[in-house]
Amino acid sequence: MSGNTFGRIFRVTTWGESHGKAVGVVVDGVPAGLTLMRDDVQAELDRRRPGKTDIETSRQERDRVEILSGVFKRKTTGTPIQMLVENKDVKSEKYEKRKTKPRPGHADLTYKLKYGHVDYRGGGRASGRETVGRVAAGAIAKKILEAEGVEVLSHVVRAAGVEIDSRPSVEEIRKVTKKNPVNCADTTVADEMQEQIRKVKKKGDSSGGVVEVLALNVPAGLGEPVFEKLDAEIAKALMSIGAVKGVEIGLGFEVSDRKGSEVNDQLRFEEGKIVSETNNAGGILGGISSGEPIVARLAVKPTPSISKSQKTVDLEEGKEVDLELEGRFDPNICPRIVPVAESMMALILVDMMLRGGEIDPDQFGGSV
């Protein structure tokens, strides 16, 4: 199977299946000398791990990470870093019973058509469990970005039809999102989101939403014409997350209903620097970063696993059947997408900054 590696210089390869023994990641291209401790990675994994609240899957995974290589005496050695997280709370029996019946909305059918022999338990390689490796790698990328003064943040702006009314400040996104289970920057709206998610869940259904991810203090000049534009690279990174069905940068699809005079970010001087009066472009012009905050939004589909009866086919018997799923599902995946979205943004920015010479690999003191 190809397509498991992301990045050109900062290369990330995730591995493992939902109900296998473990999931993990190999990260290559990390500069030597970067201080990296297990707790750095664990803090990020704790944000995405399941079973913390009643608006997440009840699967109980501690997601304790082991760093197997590439780190010695709390510093990276410049060699590949391999990290492993064991799957502990695995219940595969229900998947055995319906292994010939592809679940609507899942990758069961397409994986079967492409590969023939697949691990169907819990979605196998196509499970959201695969994002454990992304988040572990993202923790390293964030440490590198921190050294460059770059910050990546994310929050839920819409879930189960409930949306934030006004744009929150960066400070609110930093602080408030961590204080509620839905990762929303408005506590009142967060309560409404949770209530609506629960209502949909009680009906045996699921809901979707929109997650916004921002990157602050990104240097101007990232991105290459014409097929390696920064926004194209970011879109690919975010679209690679399994539940994401759309990505927009800045105003995104809203530009289709605006005039040029309303969309263009007008320029002025401020203390000798060129600044934009607005940031409708989302920090990227012509595929190249402008120095303004990068703003991207992800359309997150409703979790395809629902308890309502659905129509599918039995591949073994060759007939149409009704399917009712039993198991442990996220009623809304948006809250747990937040750390994944941050990780993918961090990973592509580190790779692009290394490619553009914006990061000095020797700065961490690893070279002799």
Helix-strand topology string = EEEHEEEEHHHEEHHEHEHEEEEEEEH
Largest sheet: 5 strands, antiparallel
CATH class: Alpha Beta
Shape: globular
Low-confidence stretches: none
Annotated CATH topology: Chorismate synthase, AroC fold
How much strand content do the residues show?
15-25%
- Widest β-sheet, arrangement of strands: 1-2-3-7-4
Please identify, by name, the CATH architecture: 4-Layer Sandwich
Helix/strand/pairing category: alpha+beta
Mean pLDDT, rounded to whole units?
95
Please describe what this structure looks like.
With 368 residues, this protein is of the alpha+beta class. The protein has one domain (8-355): 4-Layer Sandwich (Chorismate synthase, AroC fold), CATH 3.60.150. It contains 9 helices and 18 strands. It has a 5-stranded antiparallel sheet, covered by helices on one side. Strands 9-8-10-16-11 form a 5-stranded antiparallel sheet. A two-stranded antiparallel ribbon has the order 5-6. β14 and β15 (288-289) form a beta hairpin. α4 (131-147) packs across α9 (334-355). The radius of gyration is 21 Å and the shape is globular. It starts with a strand and ends in a 13-residue tail after the last helix. The model has no long low-confidence stretch (mean pLDDT 95).
